[in-house]
Amino acid sequence: PGLEMEAELITATVKIGEDPCQKQQSGKIFPLILSPARPGVNFVELQEYFLQKHTKILLAASEYGAVLFKGFDIANAEEWASVIYQSGLKEMEYIGGAAVRKLVVGSSNRMTNPQIVTTNESPPSEPIPFHHELAQTPNPPDHISFFCLVNDADGGATPLIRSDMIYDYLLETFPEFTKTIEEQGVKYIRVAPEEDDASSALGRSWKSMFNVTTREQAEQEMTKAGATWEWLPGGDCKIISTALPAVRIASNGRKSFLNQVIAAYTGWIDKRNDPRRAVVLAGGAPLDDAVLSALAAHMIANQSAFHWTPGAFVIVDNTVAAHSRQPFNGRRRILASIAKGIKPLPPPPAPAAAGTHLVLSSGDRMPAVGYGLWKVSKDVCAAKVVEAVRAGYRLFDSACDYGNEQQTGAGLKEALASGLVRREELFVTSKLWNTYHRREHVRAACLKTLADLGLEYLDLYLIHFPIPLKFVPFDERYPPEWVSMSTAGAPRMEEDAVPYRETWEAMEQLVDEGLVRNIGACNIGTLMLRDVLSYARIKPAVLQVELHPQLTQDKLLRFCRERGVAVTAFSSFGGTGYVEMGMAAPDDSVLGSPVVRAIADRVGKTPAQVVLRWAVQRGTAVIPKTLTPSRMAENLDLFSFALAQADMAAISALNQNRRFNDPGHFCEAAFGTFFPIYE
User: CA geometry: angle at 534 spanning 660 and 440, to 5°?
Assistant: First the structure.
């Protein structure tokens, strides 16, 4: 059965891997390892693999205890979150743990998307004993997953061991102890501080443990969990759990030593806690010291301890396997996500709406393929939006400057009213125009866009250009476009000296107010993005830039991936959209490239599909515009094929650093104003 299960996990993308850490435990290799079947498999293709194989992956985690993925190109927490989402694991908020945690990806008030947190941030010199995550609570997660973001450290391996095997060992070696602890269960006793104490492995405060701010709220949460408590001087709280099982039935049907007994007995120690008093039998009697010491030694002797490499991650069935952490010295950052239960995922082959997504720092999922609304005329815009929804589009890329947001809103309203889509399934983007960069104008501009679109919030709001212009009142001209009509002589651009930071801080306030869920930028490079990241309270979730085979922007894309900023590519076909504006020649389109056409013929797709797939497979979102229903469907059909690494490289080799949308050229040509931004 094991070999049969392994065979079902093998595809053209993924193969069975190996690692020196693997051991035979309970008759199976542990952990099971999956590796890329070819070089360059990144989070995009891994998402697609998970969408096809998520049921088999979770079954393997149950049968083997853990599935370790190593060798894949996953650069940041957001990319990992996009993969974990496709596992089908149902997200769970981290409440009740003893260790200090920080939220890295996700939102504490929206749990429909992955929540990625730091792992135990206790001093690296201290080992973390074996335990099952949150097993000191009545409702532990079914799965916990770990991801390596950075590891330059010596040590720091993550040992795993199968707890069904541990139960077998206890039953054979200490039958009376096993019978007693199985019948009675245990209680956990811990003193939690009022505020987080990062110096302790047990330093999570009762406030953050229960996500509360007052004693009264904490007491309500403890009552729900069946715990009792005692308030101590200085704000500390002594928490005694309800009686909890020490042995449970694992997902594979076997009995498992599923608890926090060893962790509490050997590791719950700080200035507030004594590990010898941290866990007792449910009746109050102490546990046998000799048995627990022997058990701890047995677990260490039989562990499978794997050393982390960046991009590696493991899905641990928390009902089958326990985990720990070895001490380390150096830079090491491991992240975690917990899950309870399974959520429905669209069946493969997935429709476009369920294809590849980019997970943003908020945890929101942005589809990798959207419908671009630039140059969609007002007279057809509403109808085209409805057609796009019907075709499967869920991301709509709009902007004040496009001049069609009222019509876009009318189309969205019709699609919502007719039941084609729910608001929570849509991802609507708009952009702050150049004339509204001053702090006092940002909110008004956002409200105007929301009113035109008929929405209560935007999923994403971007600063359109790093070009602050003099304010133009709404009732004077809207959209205000590029030039000021109040200047003497010919209309021209009037620059306004507004620091980008002022605009960004006003954008952050929109998130605080709930008008916008994510914020980002357009048309800036690494230097300006690096500056924004240095002061941003809410980091840019998305950067939208011109990106196509003639302008690959490799270094910018790499920088964004390293910083966890998603990238949306516009003008994916090169000069195609600029010919009618006199900004490109007909042969500037990459769709006519012999390289692209040859690949399209070989894979049985159109040149447009090949170019869009190249962009999506690089890890970017695309927002092509078309008015033709057949091409709407065609542009979405990007997940039924993949490009070979050689094809990806051949398309990237078309790069000429050719930029079509460049204010350094068109502002002078069209508006008589020299305004370079990229030099």
Answer: 75
